[in-house]
Amino acid sequence: MWRNVRVDVGRLHLVRARWNSQQANISPLARYNELVRIGELRRDEHQQSIIEQLDSLCTRLHSYQANGQDGAPLSFLSKMFAAPSSKATPRGLYLHGSVGTGKTMLMDMFYDGVHVSKKRRAHFGAFMVDVHKRFKAVKDEFIQSSGEDRIRTFNALGQVADGITEEAHLLCFDEFQVTDISNAMILRGLFTRLFENGVIVVATSNRRPDDLYMNGLQRASFLPFIGVLKEYCDVSPLDSGVDHRTVDNEGEPSVGTVYLHPHDEKVSSKADAIFQVLCSEEGAVVEPRTLHYFGRQLSFEKACGGVVDVTYHDMCIEPRAAMDYLEMCGHFHSVIVRDVPEISLGERGAARFVKLIDTFYDNNVRLVMTAAKSPSELFNRSAIKLSPKEKAELEMLRDDLGLRSSDLKTSFFTGEEELFSYLRAESRIKHILSGSYWSTCLEKNELLNASESSHQEHAS
Fold this sequence. Notes:
The protein has 17 helices and 13 strands. With 460 residues, the chain is an alpha/beta fold. Strands 6-12-10-9-8-7 form a six-stranded mixed beta sheet, sandwiched between helices. The protein has a five-stranded parallel beta sheet with strand order 2-3-4-1-5.
């Protein structure tokens, strides 16, 4: 189905492959076997065993609906007096493994192949942002109608869970991790209600369930959620000792073609040439552009159709939010990011850069980079860089929280979660360099363009 893309700076030749729309309807195991047969994947026995689990779950979930004939959650009285179900609710699946073990690919195969009418896939962080928005809206509506004095007896979290159930009977989460105390404290109540409503959860994570929110503040209050998760989901490790993103395929890697280093005039000229070739495919002119959304605006000096040319400073040092990168994905299929420095844990711009990579990767954006170091050397994880002011603020935070100096060795302060995100970003950058990634981006963009053209034709 997918063939490698051969990238040449002179002409940036792109070998386009056709996307077979029926692939989205075949089972995970059949899709995996086909990709192995045509040479897109190398067979990995451990990975195949996980595929077989997902394939089995697909079968059990065929046409699945959560509690209630119409998929809506049962009321309290309905649950009290309903006859016992003759069909047990299928257990979900929690997959954990280090970077490059194929978590995103496996989730792609499962989500595309499972036949559930109401399903939702989301990055776990984005899902929790949505949960907090719903929670606030439900509370505000209740206070407006019933008064603030009754809010303590109102189960807003239950209402949020019921609303989610009405929209999705299967929830698929990428990057399941817990780093925020506001999320940690509500997960047990939220997911207990979702599971009781019959919602199935399939998730991928860098961490075992027992390691979630490790050393987090008030973790003792979070621990019951781990028991709830294990009660409703099978847990399977993905690590087989192979980082599948770094395994060379024909025509890879593309260092020196779409990843240019170190910074010098020659590299800058190559980036200029790539920008010109990409623009030649757009049928548009190079001009400044400003995006307006949700009361925000994001301006670019050089954009041409679906191509934009930016700098690391513009994207990561300037105050940017995750929604900015997500908005870019809706307008640009190819982004050139120039002047990426060596990145150290904790320094200004580092977290934004990781978020930029994650967002572009999840949305199949083609990425060209000029950088100070090679992909393997780009992230300097040897130490956290803190300015004197930041060190003072850290000490003040320690005092405010009543922590001892030894407590600063916890993941909350040493950046353990950041290390995970850096490893993931490094692995994803290496995959972004691959011909298979560029081919996938091209195919999905072609599908999107064809869908938009068809919609416009019907509308006219």
